Amino acid sequence: MTDESQVTEQPEESVDVDALQADRDQLFDRLQRLAAEFDNFRKRNAREQAAFAERASERLVKELIPILDDLGRALEAASEFDPHVHEALLSQPSDGEEGSVIEVVQKGYRLGDKVLRPARVVIAGPSEG
């Protein structure tokens, strides 16, 4: 009888091994699919982050353009020399009012009331003659 019980146990064990191998294969397949989905998610997230950064930079530049335009107009409108915001590089004889700005060599910049870099200018000196 022991021989019969051993014979019947072997087919049950082989069925269990086959079932376990099928489960293993199924789980391995799910794991591979999950890894591929995660990789796709990571790549999509990286693309979205890059697009977001590009849109944010574009928005910032668009907000700065009018400020730069206003600053340029303000510098052009400055006709009198102001030692707080101008740095006189040289003086040239001119028919214009003495001490007025003739040419802006390098733009100046302010942040609020603070001068970050004074404008470098040429000022009108006494006329010759």
Which helices and strands, and how do they pair?
Blueprint: H1 2-77, E1 86-93, E2 101-106, E3 109-111, E4 114-117, E5 119-125
What attributes does this structure have?
alpha+beta; 3-stranded mixed beta sheet; two-stranded antiparallel ribbon
Describe the structure.
With 129 residues, the protein is an alpha+beta fold. The protein is built from 1 helix and 5 strands. It has a 3-stranded mixed β-sheet, with no helix packed on it. The chain has a two-stranded antiparallel sheet with strand order 3-4. The radius of gyration is 40 Å and the shape is rod-shaped.
Taken in chain order, the helices and strands follow as HEEEEE
Structural class by helix and strand composition: alpha+beta
Helix content: 55-70%
- What is the number of helices? 1
Q: Could you give the count of β-strands?
A: 5
Strand order of the largest sheet: 1-5-2
User: In angstroms, what separates the terminal alpha carbons?
Assistant: 137 Å
State Rg.
40 Å
Low-confidence stretches: none
Strand content: 15-25%
Shape: rod-shaped
Major β-sheet profile: 3 strands, mixed
